[in-house]
Please model this.
Amino acid sequence: MKLSVLLVLILVSAVAGTGIVSAAPDSDAPPALPGQPQLPHSFYGTIEAAGNPVPAGVPVEARAEGVVTGLPGNPLYSREGKYGSADPLTPRLEVQGTLARGTAITFYVGGIEAEVQAGGSGGAWTSSFPFSPGDVTALNLRVATAVTPVPGYVEPTEITLAATPVPVITSQVVNPSTDMMIGLIIILVILGVVAYYLGKRAEKKKTSPDQPAEQKDEEKPGE
Model:
């Protein structure tokens, strides 16, 4: 009995010791995964360089800690005096990565840091703009010196959706003339008379075969 109790105590101690060891931190455990990328913040607007609209083919880039560059949309190449568009079919400057909301984003035009102004506001020019995932922002850019486009740049053709004409179906109602109505009435009357005549003739044929049989029956007693 004492031996059984002793064995039980040893097993309980071993299990408890194993639990304590497994609860200890493992130095070989993999590091925690980094934060998931946020939705991109899209930008478009006008660009000036030394007071003039920039030519097409100048790279426009957004930078900040956690912003991923070298992706389609960052950098984005300028068009004549602008970058991106309010049209959703036109590519915009896409700012994305593992950065927190409100992170200050700086913009570069041809490698030169630009000042920014919220489009249509007419407000002050600042050095950065806060990141807001999922937003689409009109943001004007300007740099103090002239910039040159990338050699060999070819401006892509704008995509426009042509309006497809919708065929209009008009119902055409034919108004019958008076002569046509009179003709139809005459035809219906003739058909009615013919039907009546044919009906009477059919009834007459049905009753006529019985008369000879009756006459024969009447002649038998006198023979």
